[in-house]
Write a structure and sequence with these properties.
The protein is of the alpha+beta class and 424 residues long. It is 38% helix and 15% strand. It contains 17 helices and 15 strands. Strand 3 and strand 4 (202-206) form a beta hairpin. It starts with a helix and ends in a 6-residue tail after the last helix. 38% of the residues are buried. The model has no long low-confidence stretch (mean pLDDT 96). It binds coenzyme A. The site of coenzyme A (COA) has 18 residues, from helix 14, helix 15 and helix 16.
Length: 424
Amino acid sequence: MKLEQVLRVLNEEPAAGVLQPYWRESMACLPADTPDFLNPAALRETMAYTNIDPEEYDPVIRVAGRIAADNALKLLAWHCRRLLFEVDDYPGADIKRWPEMVQALGKDANYFYFLMALASVDYVRDLHRKRGLPEDITQATCSDIWRFLPRYAGLRVRVPETLSWLRHAVVGNLFKVGRHQYIRSAFSGTIQVFRHGASGDVVALAEGKLQLNSAGYFDGDSGIRDPRAWTTYLYANERTVHGFPVIPEGYVLRNDVRLRLDEWSLLLFRDTPVLDMHIPPAEPMPLEASIDSMRRALNLFYRYFPERTFRAFSCRSWLFNTQLQDILGCSSNIAAWQREQYLFPTPAPIPAGLPFIFSHAPFDLENAPRDTRLRRGVVALLERGEPLRNGGMFGLPEDLPHFGNHFYRSGWERVRKRLGLPSP
Ligand SMILES: CC(C)(COP(=O)(O)OP(=O)(O)OC[C@H]1O[C@@H](n2cnc3c(N)ncnc32)[C@H](O)[C@@H]1OP(=O)(O)O)[C@@H](O)C(=O)NCCC(=O)NCCS
């Protein structure tokens, strides 16, 4: 059957262009029987393995049966699964343009993509088995698919936009270790990080040509411009590097400093390999769980992927917005974790984190829920017309034993004096 015919039967013709690649190859390898990813027994086993609530099983199996029994739906599901997980060069940007499947499946539409999420599990298990990874890592990594359950569509994830996220685990780039997920990637912070040889102290300098506001954050955050904005510079010669320090609390000081390169070594800069951290929703995030997760991630990568070197942990997220210190105060997991990391500014031309703080549904300030401290604080800030910033963090693996003691913040007073910076 041709793709055009399939889409015509399903009333999804506009998707023809984006789904055309590799259609012929998909049809050539279509199994004669029901594909495993639509098989009820296999689905039950996968849902049990990934801790999906048993109450969810029946509708999933019913829709899988509906797809298996309808030739056009079955062919399309088979093809989409292949494009997602077996065709490396099929662009993630094209996945975002797939149909929502409402024409084809009506109220069952979101099950189509949950079945894709379930189908990712076999690939991940197979790959982890081949690498000899511990079973608890495999199971935790796979269990992240719960967010694709139909009842969370539009709230926790957007389908098909978020589907390509599943590819990270399938190709062995993403692992869940304890509380957090890790992907080895290239550092994207606009800073350079140095360590002082004799004392072990750490300082970050802002890259040059950053347009910052008078508070030391990016000018233009949430579209708000500062008439007193200024521009950073960063110069180096064979003996010194000269620029503006970022303090561990996460903003840039407008006092330039010179670091002597016989005293300070460059550790981290743009594109250095890092372990990028991702914070799955809904689980509690006490500081101990975060630190434990980072320790275990180090062990995992050192032991199973020694070839995948990295220089730091890193993350860019609304969770590292320093405004949250004021909003949440001391008794907060988010604020506590911020205090253990070295924070730095990242730009946020639109208010950062609203989908994670409220939901992926369009944000409506007037009617936004105010049921938690965070939500109340964010709503109040937006009502005052202030920007809602983003933030970045890094933590160096060799400093991990000191986490829990505000290592970078408590070392800053020494750094400040050493660099001749004025008292705050
Ligand atoms: C990460 C996460 C688990 C932290 O939650 P936590 O451990 O409760 O954090 P805190 O202790 O700092 O919470 C302090 C307050 O903020 C609230 N809060 C925290 N995260 C919230 C969120 N995402 N939405 C709404 N309120 C939130 C808490 O309920 C608490 O308020 P309360 O005392 O009135 O109940 C939570 O924010 C979450 O699930 N986030 C979604 C995942 C995410 O954003 N990942 C990063 C994507 S870039």
